[in-house]
Every structure is written in structure tokens, then in C-alpha cells.
Amino acid sequence: MDLCRVCLTGGSEKDIFQSQSANNVDSKSFADVFMFCLDIQVEQDSKISTKLCLKCYKKILSFHEFKSLALKNDAYLKSVQEESGVKNEVFLRDEVKNEDLITLNPPVELDDSLDIITVKNEPKDELDLKNEDSTHDYESDDEFLSVIKNIKYEFERENESEGKVSVKRKRKKGEKATPRVKREKEQKPAKQMCEECGKTVKDLRTHSFQHLPMASRKRIKCKLCDKVFSSHSARYKHNKIKHLGIKQECVLCNKMVTSLKQHHRLMHNRAALQYECVLCGRRFISKSVLDLHMTTHTKDRPYSCTECDKKFSTKQRVQIHKRAVHDKEKSHLCQLCSKSFFKKYHLQLHLRSHSKEKPCECPDCGKFFSTTSILKSHREIHKEEKSYACTLCEMTFKKKNYLNVHMISHTKEKRHPCQYCGIKFGRSDHRKRHEYTAHEKNFVTA
Description:
Number of helices: 15
Largest sheet: 3 strands, antiparallel
Radius of gyration: 44 Å
Oligomer: single chain
Number of strands: 23
CATH architecture of the domain at 1-93: 3-Layer(aba) Sandwich
Strand order of the largest sheet: 3-4-5
CATH class of the domain at 1-93: Alpha Beta
Low-confidence stretches: 96-136
């Protein structure tokens, strides 16, 4: 049987008669230790299991050490008590003689704070006597234990005098104790002001990296790949998402997200967010995100791309534009057709073209679409008002792309050439109809 003799778990490896007891100064076998700790007699030829799991084996060794220490200290205390009883008897027999001797010697002064007896008018180092050498009659066990505590405290005071133990400052009479929270606040370093941006920060050295160029700012390398980051928190987030894949499922929308709490706030409880846009009514989690959103309502584009003439409202959008357009960064690869994308979201939308998945349903007509942007464009059909008007005639349209198609009738622009004969058309659907009727229809029937 491989069952543990104590907890009955299977697959136990330790044997009671073959194991050794650690730190065995008494030359005991582990079977004796087992009997000593648990008072269970185990026979070697018994049909009952003699195995132990590793967890129970360690617990028995720990309990053996604890019980041995308790018995040893108990024997020591009893011996000290017996010795004190013998001293009391000697003290009672010689009490009369000691009284005569004390009258001949100088008076004795007892110092309670140091637990020593000092003789006046004599050098202190020569005539110091410890209380453990003096004789007392202990009326109870509590009084006897107090003597042992005094010996322990005296030993600690000797270490303090040698500089081994740190001495706490005693409060004066009437002085109030300083609260722990207040002491911690007093020990915290003061905030420092950044000369470049004027902000007051706790760690000026870490904050100063934000004013460096992006290439110099990224100095923390990922332990599993070649990517570098500007902060430890950014590297931790990257490792958590990319390498560990730690995600939680939202019970409301069944999405797998990295931060379930933040997902609920931004997606399902957005009305509770503190900062609101006065122009469109959208709410945001912080003021910095709100300020970034406010740039969408203005036509101001102060940041321009160094590679082309395009301008953007923020530095972040310039960097994204450079990575996607000029650097051709496409790190998300489709495993079905080897097509790569700049953003993971674009890859997810592309995968729906392989699976024919259309999760977005129109609440007005019940049609399904592959993306929310297509659904949003489709829902404009169900509006009663036509908000898009032509500037050259009186026609109005429900959708913006309808207006764009209509404007071709005014501009006469033809930018859709036929792939077979090169004839150009103003609309792509007209070109497609021409290619089928003029070139592909006869080929299919033949």
C-alpha cells in the first residue's frame, strides 16, 4: 500500500523504517520519532501501510523538534526551582549570622532600575552583586517566573550597552505618542518641480525621461522578445498580454479582456465617468483623454509629418501615421492568407472575411454586418431626414457616400478604368457592370 499512514494520500514515497530523522542527536530512528510524536506504534511486518507523504514527513520532524525543545526547557525550569529551594534552606539556617555581618558592613542601597545591590562609599565595579546570587523565598510560580524574566531583561540590557540592540527613545512624562501615519508622512520626501514643464512630481529623475526623444526614452527591454519600453509598467502590460495571455471573460459581452474592471467602466458603465465633452456629450475616464478628444471638434492641425504634407492634431497620431504609412509596420499576420496588418483590430476584421462571420445586427431591419462601421453607415438609411445636401443642385441624401457618388455627375470625373479595355468610368459599379457584360459574360457562356 502506498497510502500515507497519517493523511491517507496516495503515491507516498517516504517509508517510516527507511527514513532518517534530521538533526538526530539522540541516535533515534524515524520509527522512534514517529512513536514519540504521535504515540502510534508501527510494526515493520504489518499489512498496514508504513508510507508517509513528504508533507506529513516534514510536519513530524518539525513537531519532534518542537516537543524536544519544550521537554528540555521544562526540565531546566524544574532544576532551577529545586536549586532555589536549597538556597532558601541555607538562607534560613544562616539568617542570624548574616544579620551580624550586615551590621558591620556599610549600608546597602538597592537600585531597582538595574537590578543590582550597590554598597555606598565603595567602588561600584568591585561590590556589584546580581539578584540571581541573592536568595529569595518565592511564594508562588508567578514570582518565580518574574525572576526568570528579570534575568532575560538583564541580558538584553547588557547587549544594549555593547551596542548589539537598538534602544528606543522613551517618551517623557506628558508627551503624546506620534501616530504611525504621521511619522510615515514626515519621512516621505518632498515633491520636486520639473523645470521643463512646471509639474511637481515625486520622482524627478523618472519624470525627466518623458522629455527625451522616443528613441532615447525606450530603455527597458522585454525578457522574452526584442521590444523595448519606456517604463516598467509598459513592459509588464506587454508581457501580460503578449506572452502570458492573461485575460478574463466579460459576462455582459463575452469578450476576453486584460482588465475586466476597466472594460466595465469604459464599455458598460460609461455614463458614470467623470469628464464629459460639452459638444457631443461623450464621457471619458480622465481629463487628458478628454483633452485629446476635444481636438476632434477643431480643425486645428499643428503637428505635421516630416515625410509628407499631412497634418494631425496630436503627436501620437503623427507617430501612428509614420509607423503605418511610411515605415510599413505590419506585425499582425493572418495565418490563412499571409496578409499582414498594422493593428490587431484590423486583423480581427479581416478574419471575418474567411469565416463569413457577421456579428453586428441592425436593430431596425435585422440585417447583419461584419463591422460596426458598416452597420453605422447602414443605419443612416433608416433616418427620415436627409442631412447631406449637394452644393451645386437642390438634391439631398441620407448618406455621405451617396452624396459623393452624386457629385460625379457634376464633376464628370472618371477614375475607374476597365481592366480589359481601359475605358474609364465615373463609378466603380458602372465599371464592374461593363466588365461583366462586355468581357466576362461571353467568356462564361462559351
